[in-house]
Amino acid sequence: MHRVLGDRRAVLLLLGPALLVYSLIMLVPTLWSLGYSFTSGNTIDGFTGNGLDNFHRLFTDPDVRHALWFTAKYAVAVTVGQVVAGYLLALLYVFFLKKASALIRTLVFFPVVLPTVAVGLLFKNLFQVGPQTGPVNSLLNAVGIESIDFFGSSGHAFWVLIGMDIWRSMGFYAVLLFAGLVDIPDEVLESARLDGAAGLRLIRHIVLPMSFPVLMSSLIFSINGTLKAFDSIIALTNGGPGNSTSPLTLYMFQTSFTYGDYGYGSTIALLLTIVCLLVTLVVFRVSRRDLTKD
Amino acid sequence: MNTDSSAARKKGRLAALTASTAALALFTAACGGTGGGSASAPKNFSYLTVNENSTVKTALGTLSKGRCADEHKALPLKVESVPQSGLDQKLQLLAGQDALPVQFAAGNAPALTEQLYKSGKIADLEKELDKLGVLDRVEPAAISTIKALYGGKMQVLPYEYNIEGIFYNKKIFAENGIEVPGTWSELTAAAARLEAKGTQPFSASGQLGWPLTRLISGYLYRSLGPDALQDVKDGKAKLTDPAYVKAARQVADLGKKGYFGKGVGSIDYDTSFNQFLTGKAAMLYMGSWALTNIADPKQNTVGADNIGFMPFPAVTGGKGSVDQYPSNVGLGITLGKNTDAKTGDWVTCIAENYGSTALKDQGSISGFKTSTDVKDANEVTGQVRKTISDSKQNVLWFEALFSTKATTVSQTNAAGLVSGSMSPKQFMQTVQDALSSK
Q1: How does pLDDT run along chain A (294 residues), one tens digit per residue?
Q2: Which residues of B touch A13 (CB under 8 A)?
Q3: Residues of chain B positioned with their CB less than 8 A from the CB of A149
């Protein structure tokens, strides 16, 4: 084995095809897109170089600032919601429902397999105000509160979106974290209990530190997914009302494909890539800290 | 040993060569487009349209089975529909791959159509129709409307020739003692009376946005005259000027008073029609393409005889007049550069027969002359046809002269304007900013 891996040509032969395919489908388009950010134009008009104009525009464009702020708000709210709800569900599965958790796990996981568009339509109908009053507004009316146009104001639309995305994916994080929790050896939990740790103390001092790596993985998964959220927003609000629920991804898509400005769209894509990289680096750095040594 | 190592080296080279060839094949496949570029002759009379417009595809379907059956046999009609909101993206992608269909809806804004025309993706239709000897089958008024919209060139076919105005429910008006409003203040008074009696005055799709922004341009044309939006394009005026903001305020006030019903931002095109045609709303601002829906008894449960048409009302003291109708040719449908003798036969057949077929079967008025005398399907169709022939001067719609970005910004924010989440000043400022941006 050592002889094979010591041979450069063998290594090249083994890695080469995979590296080539990866380069063609990942690196080449990324670099290609980077190249576009120094141009203006589109596939209809053709492309012309415009130096750093797109980058200058990026820093002065109020729509980018708005989309970046929305992306950050959305990512933080959904990530916290998904991971916290997922962790609480996982704790419920492991410590309360125990072996009887299979049915609940399946039910909670169910929205994960539903198509996003279907979930979007479901929530649209749940919260609709007209032409028919949806169940949520009917409930509000029943307790004497006037109907709310949830998709007519940015504040309400934002929270419906957050609620939908947390509901849609908490089952996935619950299963992921459940796998982490069942890995904690029973002996450790048993000895902690014998030492008098129970309830929140057991979770704070034993369960949380021991499930920390999987919690971090969930966090990275979640934050990267939410920073690039697109389909659920298109399905529920289409970025509206106006552009109030429009994240960077949607603004990039509209700039490139609706307004036909591929160059500037690529510049926005670059900004999104940098944001994702920075956030991942920060999460990695934080995760290196060993909680048990505090 | 040497022989072994040489054989292994050969095998290694072979494997590397195979991998490189495979990668090259992948790369070529990925970058080579669809292969359906414009160079080859079309295999179908392909037509890309939007889900929201069924008139043209239905009429073409009828023609393919009847008067254009031979053309259909030689080059089968193949229709593909996409949601209107996704049309521009689809066109951008297809144009980039040189894979535009033979005939297609050419974008939500004339700006995109002009872009396609300038880059040589669209045929000069005046020249093409002239070459085919059927240019005289097109109404001159339709040609002049197209030229006004599309930079002086005939870039689209007049599958529809529409004027816009307000359709109203005659029965609801009569029951509430309302005369057809002649001025904006009479219109708002009528709306107030209807609202007080529990009838929703207007039905409009806030999801699409344009049925709301059309009211702004209507008010602008009546108050400032037919050049109101040309002045904005030419830089002589701004949407943030007080007279322009006033128009937005008038429309916002209608929303503030609840005249569009609840959740206008979530109302889609079909629902807005349904509300009006089932008698749940008294008025609908729409183009004359609505005659198709009005003539369909499955959709129109109040009956075609109960529907009336009125021009956008006058604004007291304004410079415009009620006989200046917003006109258009509906969704701009055009022909790509990729035409041959068979597509020419199709276009000839369409030019000769489309006008009569669309009017007879669907009550839809097009810019193609009718080849036979067609009796109007109902009173309102006759009224609209007469209005079109009597019309002396036409105006355009709110976003007609805007860029694609400003069009999107205007239409996506219109619901916010009438629901009160955006002030009239903010709305006009946002659209003006989009107009001024690159």
Answers
A1: 566 677 888 888 889 999 999 999 999 999 999 999 999 988 888 899 999 999 999 999 999 999 999 999 999 999 999 999 999 999 999 988 887 788 999 999 999 999 999 999 999 999 999 888 999 999 999 999 999 999 988 899 999 999 999 999 999 999 999 999 998 888 888 888 888 878 888 888 889 999 988 998 899 889 989 999 999 999 999 898 888 999 999 999 999 988 889 999 999 999 999 998 899 888 878 777 655 554
A2: 12, 15-16, 19
A3: 262-263, 265-266, 419
Work out how many domains chain B is built from and give that number: 2
One domain for residues B339 and B318: no
| Structural domain containing residue B285 | 163-327+398-436
State whether residue B112 sits within 8 Å of chain A by CB. yes
Task: Convert the pLDDT of each residue in B354-366 to its tens digit.
Answer: 999 988 888 888 9
Q: Is the CB of A42 less than 8 angstroms away from the CB of B413?
A: no
Query: Are B419 and B320 contained in the same domain?
Result: yes
Q: Is the pLDDT of residue B322 over 80?
A: yes
Does the distance separating the beta carbons of B412 and A243 come in below 8 Å? yes
Cα B183 to the chain's mean position, in Å? 27
| CATH class held by domain A37-293 | mainly alpha
Residue of B nearest to A156 (CA): B421
Residue whose entry in the numeric block shows the structure tokens 């033979």: B102
**B416 has a chain A CB within 8 A of its CB:** yes
What average pLDDT is seen over chain B? 87
CA-nearest residue to A10 within chain B is: B12
Alpha carbon distance B318, A237 (integer Å): 38
Total residues belonging to chain A? 294
Which residue shows structure tokens 């521009």?
A: B88
Burial A32-45 (b: 16+ CB within 10 A, else e): ebeebbbbbbbbbe
B409 and B305 within one domain: yes
Domain annotation covers residue B375: no
Residue B37 lies in a domain: no
What tokens appear for B344 in the block?
A: 């020419």
Q: Do A43 and B261 touch (CB under 8 A)?
A: no
Q: What is the CATH number of the domain that holds B336?
A: 3.40.190.10
Do B205 and B346 reside in the same domain of the chain? Answer: no
Task: Report the C-alpha gap between A149 and A147 in whole angstroms.
Answer: 7
- For residue B238, tell me if it sits in a domain: yes
Q: Does B28 touch chain A (CB under 8 A)?
A: no
Q: Which of A189-203, B137-151, B172-186 has the highest mean pLDDT?
A: B172-186
| Residue A36, φ and ψ in degrees, nearest 5 | -60, -30
Q: Do A17 and B96 touch (CB under 8 A)?
A: no
Count the helix, strand and coil residues of chain A and give each as a percent rounded to the nearest 5.
75, 5, 20
Contact B129, B343 (CB under 8 A): no
Window 242-271 of B: residues touching A by CB (8 A cutoff) are: 261-267, 271
Does A16 contact B93 at a Cβ distance shorter than 8 Å? no
Q: Decide if B408 and A259 are in contact by the 8 Å CB cutoff.
A: yes
Residues A152, B421: C-beta atoms closer than 8 Å: yes
